[in-house]
Amino acid sequence: MKLGRYEVVRELGKGAMGIVYLAKDPLIGRLVALKTIRPAAHADDDETMEFQQRFIREAQAAGILNHPSIVTVFDIGQDDTTQMNFIAMEYVEGQNLKEALSQGKTLTFEQIGELVAQIAEALDFAHSKGIVHRDVKPANIILVEGSRAKIMDFGIAKIASGGANLTTTGQFLGTPNYMAPEQIKGTPVDGRTDIFSLGICLYESLTRRKPFGGESLTSISYKIVHEPFPPLHEINPQIPDGFEEVVANCLAKEPAKRYQRGRELASALRAVLRGERPSKMEPLLAEATITTRDRSKLPTIEMPFPDAAGGGGPDGGASTRAAAASSAPTPGQAPRATVAGGPAVVRQFRQTLTNVRAYPLWRRPVPAALAAGVVGVLMLALLWSMVSIQRQRVTVPKVNVQVERQRARERALRQEGSDLLRQGRTADAYAKFEQLAKLAPNSPGVSVMLQKLAAIRYQEEVGKQQIATARQKLDRGIALYNQKKYAEAVPLLDEAFALNPTDAQAANYLRLAQLEEQKAITARLAARARTVLPTEPATTTAPISPGDSRPVSNVPAQLTTIFNSPFSDGVLTIRIGGEMVVNEALWEEKGRFIRRKSPRGISLTREIPPRNTDVFISVVVPTLRVNSQQSFRFNFVPGTAHRLVITYNAASKTIDHQIN
Ligand code: ATP
Ligand code: MG
Q1: How many other C-beta atoms can be found within 10 angstroms of the C-beta atom of residue 129?
Q2: What pTM did the predictor assign?
Q3: Whose CA is nearest to atom 16 of ligand 1?
Q4: In the annotation, is 135 catalytic?
Q5: What is the pLDDT of residues 109-143, one digit of tens each?
């Protein structure tokens, strides 16, 4: 059989609330005692739920108790199939005190004193944690080998009863034999209640009698509340004197007259064992009294007590068994803890129990100071949050309609101007930005834009003029070309091309005119050669390349022109002896997607007829207004490689040259 994850080994015994099993925890292989607890029969849903909550709460409370003389609670659980609640606790091998007493086991006064002192210390420990046992009795005290004792079932009574000492069905949970007067009366219990019950255990262990015996529940209860206990020495004169006083201090009817703490009882017992007089210390402060969470006001159960002597009556059966158990326990007899009261008593209990319910947590009275504190803190928090919300509130500036309207107009003008500029309509864009400057005269952005636009407009203007001039020159150059006046046409076409290098017509006419002029020059040279009267003889005897069969004077010279142009615009022209030798744009178009003009290095080699002649170099860059010329005379030696390096001086906007 299994209960939860625990494997049941065997039954250890039966109690009022269920069976106790020896079981094994398969997770860690340890033996445990499993105490099953069944809720009251016929309980309705609310009661069952309340029971569950109480069960968990009390077991958790007991679970925090870790003391050598307290049986440790390991776990709680509910079996899935049977819905049985159980508590898994330390399995203690030993005999409980009830069995030991009923079997007539010999216990010396010293052993009894020591065992009860240990339990008193254990109770003191539990009380200091705010936990009251509520059911201290010999069946809950286990004697371990040697002379050690352990107490078990902390809080179990409360789990089953819900705070009253009776089950909701009007049955005593356990016998009233070990109850304190306040339990019988239903007034709040505290640690001193346990001290009373332990006092009865001590009395019974010493005398083998119960101090408040009776034949019925009601007579026992009456005696507990009202009657003194029979003195120890009357029962057994051998009991050491000190015990009398200790028992009296435990069994005082009023809790305030008892030992206030378990450790007081323990030290009194040990004093007795040492042969000293036990001294009962008055608590120095009222607070020295153990207060527990059980001090909440419960309605007092007013019990009508019949005469103790007249205990038969209708409740005879069960109560007689209880009385018999208390007065003369016999081996093998199991004086069941649960004693069903006779019908009359049950009826009385039922009547009184209607109001006996533990208040749920939320209905318990809260101390005024605590309530005031909580309310105060809440008020402060509210105040603080209101202040911080106020602080965070942003002041919305008032909208000045006039200003906003002007800003909108400015935005529109800026947008229109930018669009026009993108379309290349510089003049229109300029007009828009001029309007914008009037609206926002202090805006640095607008004035910068106007400056840029003015520069562009100027460039455009210059460009237009240049193109117009270029056109005029081209027209005149074409006219001269058509008149076959190539020598005159070439400089005009050259200029037209320089002013507008993008003009393909100018470039074509220039090339054609140069060719025609070249032909004319060659023809002239040939004619002169025939007359053997060279007008411009070569003066040097430069080396002639091998294999060149031409006469020395006719072998052309070579001229390599080098100009590392810094310009993205313009034209380099070189005329030698009036003949256009070089006519090169200083830029090239670059860029895969966006074509743009960028500078290009020039390195050109041309064959030059050998002679001593004029060299004219011209660099024209319209956008930078560069127009620089150099002219000099140079002797081109037949078959010689000459080198012309042109440089540009940006400061003076002029060109320079070196030739060799
Ligand atoms: P009550 O129900 O009023 O407490 P009870 O104490 O006689 O009465 P249980 O506490 O249910 O009954 O115990 C039943 C039996 O199981 C007892 O003989 C007890 O000694 C034994 N027992 C209980 N807990 C343990 C434990 N942790 N280790 C060993 N034996 C135990
Ligand atoms: Mg028990």
Answers
A1: 15
A2: 0.48
A3: 13
A4: yes
A5: 999 999 999 999 999 999 999 899 989 999 999 99
